[in-house]
Amino acid sequence: MKPRSKRALAVILALVALAAASALVLQAFQSNLVFFFSPSQVMANEAPRERSFRVGGLVEEGSIERAAQGLTIHFKVTDTAHAIPVTYTGMLPDLFKEGKGVVAQGRLGADGVFRADQVLAKHDENYMAPEAAEALKNAAAHKAQSTATLAVPAAGARP
Amino acid sequence: MIYELGHLALILALAMSLAQGVLPMIGAQTGNAAWMGLARPTARGQFVFVLIAYLCLTHAFVTNDFSVALAANHSNSTLPLHYRITAVWGNHEGSILLWSLILAGWTLAVSIFSRQLDDRMLARVLGVMGLISCGFILFTLFTSNPFERMFPPPADGQDLNPLLQDPGMVIHPPMLYMGYVGFVVAFAFAVAALISGQLDAAWARWSRPWTTAAWCFLTIGIALGSFWAYYELGWGGWWFWDPVENASFLPWLVGTALIHSLAVTEKRGGFKMWTALLAILTFSLSLLGTFIVRSGVLSSVHAFATDPTRGVFILGFLAVVIGGSLALFAWRAPQVGLGGSFEPVSRESMLLANNVLLLVAAAAVLLGTLYPLAVDALGMGKLSVGPPYFDTVFVPLMTPALFLMGIGPIARWRQARLPELAYRLRWAFGVAAVSALAAFLALGKWTPMIGLGLALAAWIASTVVLALVTRLQEHKSPDWRRRFAAQPGSFYGMLLAHLGVAVFIVGVTIVSGFESESDVRMEPGDTATVAGYQVRLDKIEDVTGPNYQASRATLSVIQDGKLVAIVRPDRRVYNVSRSPMTEVAIDRGLLRDVYIALGDPVSATAWSVRLHHKPFVNWIWIGCMLMALGGFLAVMDRRYRKLRVSEPVRPASAPPQADRALPIGGVVVARSGAGGTGR
């Protein structure tokens, strides 16, 4: 082969390899995106049934129930508007507490119970996972909006 | 008073860095020797003032002066002294000041160990470093003043985050910063060389030891961070693909590409533009890492800052530095030329392929790290990228890279022949294949991943031996000791670092293939089993530490009826912050760790306990340490020092010639003949 065609071949090979790598990366990326939903969104059936996702909010006060045997725990995650039941088996993070922020990752069962395979509560006592904080904020904003519309129907026309 | 002095010192340091960044640059441009000569004294002055500021701040922590807001918010009088000293950087303001101090330290080092540089180059290198320093000190003064006072001072401080009260945290941040910031030297050299158009082998030889040193520190820093996460977070994982970890891993990946590309530029004069681009990218990613970690866009144990003006400042600084240097690169690159040519099968081509693979891997990590941030910033919802993404991407990208890593050191520069290479590597192929099979027989469990991992590790280890033997055989001396002594330190450094990679792969492969974990509910007297070990909970008692209360479990680890170890994990509640925290207990060994964490009480008498069996996990960090050690060996190579001694012979003003630089890599010349640089 002439040096020229050799170089062309090398460039083509490199491009093919790069394209393959990109395809691989994007494919892996697509299938590993984990979306976040608030309890209200889950209640409104916006969350997928067939794929794993995250749900976050506060651990509802008085909702924690432990099984008599083993390490299974049931609790509810609430954004103050809606709450969904969660079940998890295993050791909980240090900062898991009633009334504190939590994010659970797992799948939604047909019975409406969220089966978590991971429960996250972060490193700092004062810190709340941004997902959980946003869920609370949205729920609060939604509430405020609906009460405002009820109280002052005349202002309801404004978007 | 002393803190106002510290503040003043920081302002003076700003003035110094401004002088260091502007005057020598103008001097270098106009040929004004007096202005160029200002580079050294201003660099040293800047270091002194930053050091004074830093010591003043440390004074507040050591003496428990809570009139300084930073100390009040992040320290406490019951905190042991060594943690009060490290608490200085356990917060946003202090850690940025540490950043500046380390930057000033690297600048000082360059100003001292730079006798072989001509004045113009040195003026530009220190000038660029001065400008970077100027940006960071401005950032500190305007958005994160560490000397802010608090009136009235509180009776006691709010304490350091308990997770950071750990020996690992004492050395992890400074090491990481030494690495992050150290890449500024490579960056400054590249920018200075781009300005002067002097991108040659001499430039590569100057920046090489600095870059390798920074890379070593970064390697140590990342390994310590991973080691800390392993025993402190209580989950038993050693790498989480957390955005903060990724932020430190990105400059490492590109920095690894850079140190290999520098080798080609030094030895063969090739890859010049590519090397300059990598130097710019590496430091840019260090800055991006600082932005990601410190701006508060991420919430984690590392993100102290939540003030948006800080994020905007760093983002602006990032845009100026990256945009400016890339613009300079685009302007200058066409004038530089390509450097030495090489054939498709040669050491150059393999290093190039490895460089590209490392960069693609870095791009994949960058995508997984920034995409959720971008989606969030655009208000398109919250999402995260699961760790399986990174695993899926990394294995296929790194497999060819690791395979080439075995061949590269054995292949000849410029042109190698495949049949000859295959013939020389036949034993290494054999060893790799046999170890993959042996794994199947010895370990009782076999998956393609385990086979692949062990085969790659064996491949790298055997090619390291092969490279050593080949080198020794080529030397003609009859005395073996002379043959060993004739090889340069950088060669042994390279071998050791590559061996470290092999050790690391063994650790990763075995721990991910064979680890076992169980979360159990235990009452005193209960026994649980993990991977052939019986673990008996003997008792749980309350203990009082210096600044915490804890429940402490005592567990006996038993194997085949014999007591192996008694371990005592804690579940602590720190007095000031009231944060509960797990302090795991680990029975360590070269071949396995038994890792036990005490969870929360699940009933009046029962506790949740997490048991892990982690075979070969320590090989991960041993491998990293070998890599860093190899790097340091390479930095100490005689040829970098020899130059310094012989330098006075050469007139300081004469620009060193590329062809003069080449014979210094004597081995290369001896092996491949004096293939000229340039075309």
Question: Could you provide a short overview of the structure?
Answer:
Chain A is α+β, with helices and mostly antiparallel strands.
Descriptive keywords:
heterodimer; A: 159 residues; 35% helix; 27% strand; disordered C terminus; B: 679 residues; alpha+beta; four-stranded antiparallel beta sheet; 23 helices; 11 strands
Describe this structure as you would to a colleague.
- The complex is a heterodimer of chains A (159) and B (679).
- Chain A is an alpha+beta fold.
- Chain A has helices at 3-31, 39-43, 130-151; strands at 33-37, 53-59, 65-66, 72-78, 83-89, 101-108, 114-120.
- In chain A, helix 2 (39-43) links the parallel strand 1 and strand 2 (53-59).
- The longest helix of chain A has 29 residues, at 3-31.
- The relative contact order of chain A is 0.14.
- The model of chain A is unreliable at 123-127 and 147-159 (pLDDT under 50).
- By secondary structure, chain B is α+β, with helices and mostly antiparallel strands.
- Chain B is built from 23 helices and 11 strands.
- In chain B, the strands form 2 sheets. In chain B, strands 3, 4, 5, 6, 7 and 8 form a 6-stranded antiparallel sheet that branches. In chain B, strands 2-11-10-9 form a 4-stranded antiparallel sheet.
